[in-house]
Write a structure and sequence with these properties.
The complex is a heterodimer of chains A (about 90) and B (about 375). With about 90 residues, chain A is an alpha+beta fold. Chain A has a single domain (about 5-85), classed as Beta-grasp domain (Ubiquitin-like (UB roll)). Chain A has helices at about 25-35, 40-45, and strands spanning about 5, 20, 55-60, 65, 80-85. Chain B folds into two domains: about 35-265, NAD(P)-binding Rossmann-like Domain (Rossmann fold, 3-Layer(aba) Sandwich); about 280-375, Rhodanese-like domain (Oxidized Rhodanese, domain 1, 3-Layer(aba) Sandwich). The chains are: A alpha+beta (about 90), B alpha/beta (about 375). The interface between A and B is large, with 24 and 48 residues.
Chain lengths: ~90, ~375
Amino acid sequence: MPVLKIPTPLRTYTDGQAEISVSGGNVGEAMGGLIAQYPALKPHLYNGDGNLRPFVNLFMGEDNIKDLQGLETPLPDDARLRLIPSIAGG
Amino acid sequence: MLPGLTRDEILRYSRHLLIPEVGLDGQRKLKGSSALIIGTGGLGSPVSLYLAAAGVGRIGLVDYDVVDSSNLQRQVIHGTSTVGTLKVESARAKLLDLNPDVQVDAYNEPFTSENAMRIAKDYDVLIDGTDNFPTRYLTNDVCVFLGKPNVYGSIFRFDGQVSVFYAKEGPCYRCLFPEPPPPGLVPSCAEGGVLGVLPGTIGTIQATEALKVLIGIGEPLIGKLLLYNALDMSFEFVKLKKNPNCRVCGPNADVKELIDYEEFCGVPGHDHEEGSAGANWDIAATELAERVEHNHLKLLDVREPHELEISSLPNAVNIPLGQLAARLSELDSAEDMVVFCKAGTRSARALELLVSAGFKKVKNLKGGINAWAREVDTSLPIY
């Protein structure tokens, strides 16, 4: 089953869960399922128009989904999705 | 022409000279090279120590802060004896003790749109060790405009990121992060904490990348982002591509000069310790102390439960910020309420949330429980 890795700053909104199993035919459907499960995540990831916010980087394996087919990217069963957060500490 | 090495330098760098990839030529390249390190904190400490030890001929340090005892858990270039002194001077003394043959330029000033090009233009590489988004975007744009590599490192709690952003050969920071996150979404290390050794790991990798770039060996992390997690001890890489729509390095770039980065990011260009909700919404610790004595006031503590063990206020109700939206029904909007956290940043966000939900009689404790510990109850610890 595909899994999505949640970065530390967003785990507050996933009950502390670091990895969440997701499902769907494509990346967008998997993200929809994630939001349904953890609605508090939605404002952090999506704009009002239903697109991912520009600072949100969603990768499948080593690739940014922006370099694939975006939210339409087909989701293989062994997909590993991860959100890469903007962090600024130094 | 590359500078030669003295007899003493040949001895000092002998372990480098033995490596064929470095050798005499590589060491001479390092001696003739320069690196500008933005920030002399958690990342800047190991970066500057290792670059000085390695013999980078000229090292610039930019920081305007003074050493605080809460820095010493991770900022290993400073020491107990230098608490209260300028960070760039504390660091310069340590670096020159480690290697008197290098030149250390100390810039005791914030890195800003006004001075950044002047400071950076003569250095071969910039190393981003800052603690805030505005300075990260500034450092990136300076590197793009001057055509220099930007050795990027960033940390939060147990997580670290490293890349070499070099627009001539690959993506820049803005290709990956076109826009900063909304103010307040990503906690700073002052708010969220950081494992002390984490900047050691990340800064040491940045130093490694800088040395590779300066000598011209190996495969620098151009077009790759390293993601490190100390808890899992995982090192993972993702591929980064140049963003054709990048506003600073793309073919149709419209950002042609440095901008106001604080305005762009909506936050100050430093890891602000003290948060404020604005003059109309803030209450000072001393004023709160008077009001608590005379009036009925609800105290809402929005810190994480483990922070309550460090310090707490009697009769305060604890709802962590992350749970507040879902637990509003536990609060009475008719009641006078003062929200607080460690230093006033999270409580300012909680206040925004409460006001947008219709609460009108709310105030933010300016400076948080730390201000209370300084000004009202000095038996409480400051953290």
